């Protein structure tokens, strides 16, 4: 393919480790093959007059080659003369849409090729404009300037075709200097980091001493203040910015004062006092010295809450009714002790037949109650937070709190004392745990009895407490099922510690009894087990034979299809907002009006332990 160009060079080289540790991988810019991009001076994009021509990109096995053609403008002709004269020998590219995995740059888009004063720092590096490291291969970076340190070569008037690889190598070889003639930079790069630090200090001291040499040296000092080993492609050195020794002393003194407190603030204050610039060092350069923190996960902050999995299970498991005033009726036709004579009889000829006994009618009503969450936020905060929708975030948190409050009230009660204005009344949303014995079967866990049963008289046998607890729980639950009259698809709700204690049960040989939660669920004869932190340590007071006892909750067995939550139209979960013009606040409210109760007798089992002191 015929090509006419003024110069050529490597835009990037594959597997080239840059000074910051990143590596441009093969085909990272393969999508740019054949693209034409502008040539500009030193990545200055703010003025169209800085466009010096255009470059054609070609993806090769070793990297991306660029072939440049200067335009017929004054700056284009001037740049061409500089290149032909050997004054400009280095290229750089500006790329964005960068994507990397670890230190490897995998993909990017080249936007322009620049001529740069790169001779002072041979070797590759990336001048990051807004680039973050990530282990995520799909992470999109923002932008960067990439230097390869490779010299470009000049095309002569007879060069109509792209040189073959061998020809390119010959041209590059001719461009190279005698290897025996080492430059200052070559010698400097052989030093260790510690040796380089010493050299910096010596040169810095020499320059500082030179400042006292009088006015005759003033012009020379202006050129000498730059580190001779700096990369002139670096933005700060192009601008000629530096901090003198007197600046440093003043800044450190300012930082030590109680009114400032930090070096970053001291530099900013000192720069402002100096009118914005200190020998070319602008306060904006603080971004290089003290980079801003970046969010690991941009957007809304992660919520730290108690486990909400069981809340979802409860809210999805209960039966919904469009009737908020619930009435249940049951007829108790049992005759446990024979006092109600609820049985059939045999008839003897000539005797009078006797009526059966009277069954007991069970009836109760449940009225709705309003449950709400209210909050407000200053409008200034709403306007200032721009990286996520703070209003929707607030409503999401309020909805979660509402669900948790309702689910807790259904299972346990809200835990507030009677008479508390914020209490959810237990006659409106009836807790399964504390419901009447006709609806919830309350049984005690007897650890002492199970310990004696397992240990017996064989004192050498020693079952662990976990095994004793698991066996006591299973035995209590299965015996209680004999009284159960619910729908039958039971779920066991307990706290995490109770579950883990049973999972840790071992036999005398040290082998675990239950391999996983599903195995334990089979032993308990339930379809699943749900853990809830809200169950831990919950106690209630009951009166037994005229004596007040304290009962500790261990868990609840229930099929939530037997629990009905009623809410009429308008009582469903609804959100409201209102603006307070006097205080410039946005107010938020989310509420629901509902009732809840078990509707079948003996449809839940609560396992408790008597912990009365």
Would you kindly provide a written description of the structure presented here, covering whatever features stand out?
- By secondary structure, the protein is of the alpha+beta class.
- Helix content is 27%, strand content 27%.
- The protein is built from 16 helices and 26 strands.
- Strands 1, 2, 3, 4, 5, 6, 7, 8, 9, 10 and 11 form an 11-stranded mixed β-sheet that branches.
- A hairpin with a 2-residue loop joins β7 and β8.
- α7 (245-256) packs across α8, α10 packs across α12 and α13 (447-455) crosses α14.
- The chain is elongated.
Unreliable runs: 119-141, 156-177, 212-240
Number of helices: 16
Please outline the major beta sheet.
11 strands, mixed
Helix content: 25-40%
Q: Give the radius of gyration.
A: 41 Å
* Alpha-carbon distance between the two ends: 96 Å
Q: State the shape.
A: elongated
Question: What number is the mean pLDDT?
Answer: 78
What is the strand tally?
26
Number of domains: 4
Structural class: alpha+beta
**In percent terms, what proportion of residues is strand?**
25-35%
List the keywords.
Major capsid protein gp5 fold, 613 residues, eleven-stranded mixed β-sheet, six-stranded mixed β-sheet, alpha+beta
Summary, kept brief:
With 613 residues, this protein is α+β, with helices and mostly antiparallel strands.
Strand and helix layout:
Layout: E1 7-13, E2 16-17, E3 23-24, E4 36-41, E5 51-59, E6 63-70, H1 74-84, E7 90-101, E8 104-116, E9 125-128, E10 143-151, E11 153-154, H2 165-175, H3 184-189, H4 193-210, H5 218-224, H6 235-239, H7 245-256, H8 263-273, E12 277-278, E13 281-282, H9 286-289, H10 309-317, E14 319-321, E15 326-332, E16 360-366, E17 369-378, H11 379-384, H12 390-411, E18 440-444, H13 447-455, H14 465-480, E19 491-494, H15 496-503, H16 517-524, E20 528-531, E21 539-544, E22 547-558, E23 563-566, E24 574-580, E25 585-598, E26 604-610
Parallel strand pairs: 3-8, 4-8, 14-23, 18-26, 19-20
Antiparallel strand pairs: 1-6, 1-11, 2-3, 4-5, 5-6, 7-8, 7-10, 9-10, 12-13, 15-16, 17-25, 19-22, 21-22, 22-26, 23-25, 24-25
Helix pairs in contact: 7-8, 10-12, 13-14
């Amino acid at each position: 393919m015929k090509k006419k160009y003024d110069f050529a060079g490597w835009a990037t080289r594959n597997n080239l480790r840059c000074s910051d540790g990143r590596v441009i991988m093969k085909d990272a810019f393969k999508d740019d093959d054949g693209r034409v991009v502008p040539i500009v001076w030193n990545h200055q994009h703010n003025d169209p007059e800085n466009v010096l021509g255009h470059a054609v990109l070609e993806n090769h096995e070793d990297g991306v080659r660029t072939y440049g053609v200067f335009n017929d403008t004054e700056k284009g002709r001037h740049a061409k003369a500089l290149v032909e004269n050997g004054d400009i020998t280095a290229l750089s590219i500006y790329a964005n849409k960068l994507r990397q995995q670890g230190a490897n740059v995998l993909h990017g888009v080249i936007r322009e090729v620049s001529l740069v004063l790169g001779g002072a720092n041979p070797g590759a590096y990336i001048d990051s404009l807004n680039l973050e490291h990530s282990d995520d291969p799909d992470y999109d970076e923002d932008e960067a300037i990439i230097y390869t340190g490779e010299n470009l070569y000049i095309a002569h008037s007879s060069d109509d075709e792209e040189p073959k690889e061998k020809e390119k190598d010959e041209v590059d070889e001719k461009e190279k200097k005698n290897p025996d003639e080492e430059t200052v930079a070559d010698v400097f790069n052989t030093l260790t980091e510690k040796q380089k630090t010493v050299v910096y200090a010596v040169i810095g001291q020499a320059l500082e001493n030179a400042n006292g040499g009088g006015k005759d040296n003033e012009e020379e000092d202006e050129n000498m203040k730059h580190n001779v080993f700096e990369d002139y492609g670096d933005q700060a050195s192009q601008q000629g910015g530096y901090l003198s020794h007197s600046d440093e002393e003043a800044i450190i003194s300012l930082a030590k004062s109680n009114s400032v407190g930090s070096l970053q603030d001291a530099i900013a204050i000192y720069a402002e006092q100096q009118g914005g610039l200190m020998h070319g060092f602008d306060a904006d350069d603080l971004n290089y010295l003290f980079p801003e923190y970046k969010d690991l996960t941009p957007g809304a902050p992660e919520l730290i809450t108690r486990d909400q999995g069981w809340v979802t299970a409860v809210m999805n498991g209960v039966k919904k009714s469009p009737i908020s005033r619930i009435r249940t009726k049951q007829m108790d036709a049992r005759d446990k002790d024979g006092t109600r004579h609820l049985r059939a009889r045999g008839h003897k000829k000539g005797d009078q037949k006797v009526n059966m006994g009277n069954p007991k009618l069970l009836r109760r009503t449940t009225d709705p109650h309003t449950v709400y969450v209210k909050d407000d936020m200053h409008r200034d905060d709403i306007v200032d937070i721009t990286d996520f929708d703070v209003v929707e975030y607030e409503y999401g948190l309020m909805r979660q709190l509402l669900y948790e409050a309702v689910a807790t009230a259904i299972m346990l009660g809200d835990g507030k004392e009677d008479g508390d204005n914020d209490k959810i009344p237990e006659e409106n949303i009836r807790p399964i745990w504390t419901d009447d014995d006709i609806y919830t079967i309350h049984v005690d866990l007897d650890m002492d009895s199970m310990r004696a049963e397992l240990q017996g008289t064989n004192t050498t046998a020693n079952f662990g407490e976990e095994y004793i607890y698991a066996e006591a729980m299973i035995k209590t639950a299965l015996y209680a099922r004999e009284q159960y009259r619910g729908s039958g698809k039971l779920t066991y709700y307990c706290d995490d510690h109770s579950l883990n204690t049973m999972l840790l049960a071992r036999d005398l040989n040290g082998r675990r009894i239950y391999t996983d939660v599903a195995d334990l669920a089979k032993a308990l004869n339930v379809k699943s087990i749900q853990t809830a932190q809200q169950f831990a340590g919950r106690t209630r007071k009951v009166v037994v034979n005229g004596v007040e006892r304290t009962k500790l909750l261990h868990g609840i067995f229930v099929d939530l299809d037997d629990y009905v939550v009623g809410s009429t139209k308008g009582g469903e979960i609804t959100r409201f907002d209102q603006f307070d013009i006097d205080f410039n606040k946005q107010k938020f409210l989310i509420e629901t009006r509902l009732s809840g109760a078990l509707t079948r007798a003996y449809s839940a089992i609560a396992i408790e332990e008597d912990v009365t002191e």
